[in-house]
Amino acid sequence: MNFESLGLDPRILKALAEKGYSTPSPIQEQAIPVVLSGRDLMAAAQTGTGKTAGFTLPMLQNLLKGSSARNNQVRALVLTPTRELAQQVADNVALYSSHLPLKSAVVYGGVKINPQMQRLRGGVDVLVATPGRLLDLHNQNALKLNQIEILVLDEADRMLDMGFIHDLKRIMALLPPKRQTLLFSATFSAPIKELAARMVNDPAEVSVSPANTKATSITHQVFEVDKANKLKLLTHLIKQEGWRQVLVFSKTKHGANRIATALNGTGIGAAAIHGNKSQGARTKALADFKSGEVKVLVATDIAARGIDINQLPYVVNFDLPKVPEDYVHRIGRTGRAGETGHAVSFVTGEDAKELFAIERVIGELIPRSVEAKFKPSQPLPESKLDTRPSKPKKPKKPKSQSPEQGSNRAPSSDAKRAPSRKPQDRKPAEGQNASKPAARRPKPQTESGDAPKRTPNRSRSQNRAPSKTS
Length: 470
Known about the structure:
Keywords: ATP-binding, Cytoplasm, Helicase, Hydrolase, Nucleotide-binding
CATH superfamily of the largest domain: P-loop containing nucleotide triphosphate hydrolases
Organism: Marinomonas gallaica
Shape: globular
Structural class: alpha/beta
Number of strands: 14
Largest sheet: 7 strands, parallel
InterPro entries: DEAD/DEAH_box_helicase_dom, DEAD/DEAH_RhlB, DEAD_box_RNA_helicase, Helicase_ATP-bd, Helicase_C-like, P-loop_NTPase, RNA-helicase_DEAD-box_CS, RNA_helicase_DEAD_Q_motif
Order of helices and strands: HHEHEHEHEHEHHEHEEHEHEHEEHEHEHH
Strand content: 5-15%
GO molecular function: ATP binding; hydrolase activity; nucleic acid binding; RNA helicase activity
Protein name: DEAD-box ATP-dependent RNA helicase RhpA
CATH topology of the largest domain: Rossmann fold
Number of helices: 16
Strand order of the largest sheet: 3-4-2-5-6-1-7
């Protein structure tokens, strides 16, 4: 089968031909006809199988039937969990619509909002967005969502993992009930299906591969190593094996910085990307990695989805992921679009439980290796594949909110907020007794903003509650 047989517009076919695409992937082959028919869809497929084109191509064609977007209006909305994925999807939309009379834009946090507001003034046919920035723009009357014709939720399972459920509920309340809704996810767990039930109307379901399985184009192995030798082993493999482009995953932001700094110290060009980096720094690091200016990109799980690098040959799990299911998404950065790839994981004796959990999720044992120069002080316990079905995760209970908070409060960015400090957590001023309250503590403000009136100081005996009489 080729793209012509799917009934796509000749202008879209021209854009595909210019990119060198002629044959649809299995998920594209099944999803595109459903989307073109106007029906809601729930599609599940492995990472790296072409899900983005699976909804973008038919979505663009369906938008050709209607009139252009009016000022501050949006016709199709694509929601993604991360800024990098939003930019990647937007790049694909721009590519596939290069010969179409359609306008597209992308909005996400971490950058100035005014340029985004200006781009939305004339209206856009396709808007790719992260939830937090989308709500910010709506709250500032920079865009309207009441004319949405198509809603796409990309990486729906990741959205729930990252705590976007409250934002999604607010966004859903702003959308028209009559629309086409498309959900694309690696898996459809119980929480995802519960969310989908409130969003879709009689959806078609497409699944082209078993959940949590690695692509056949990817080989993977485990290196048994002591924690103290991980950096030395990584440097050795890159230099001795001649690895030219490597994506390394660290479980912490500090660890990502440390690994990148150490590699640069050995003459290996490296850059780090994580949530504490500015959006400009993240964009530059990714661009330098794609261009080959730096050989190694060290990332936290912010990059497990949303980074699409042509012919990326190697992925290294410097630390195993906290969530076993994320292993498939991490190694799925390589072996994409039919290319081959190799994934390596460094595992210490302390990581045995995490390794066993990953092997249980993917349903296979990962081959093990030991580098002669970096033999571990103690060998890993032998793996025994647990074939019992995993128990479904219970969805996290949302924090209680007042009606005012649930309806009016929207996040100011896509980053997580730090919890507010309770009065009892506040440190006393220098020189005060920590066991006693400060002599003069500011009185709380009332709802009107005025400070309550002070009452005269009383002696300790006057403040004492009267004793009960028999």
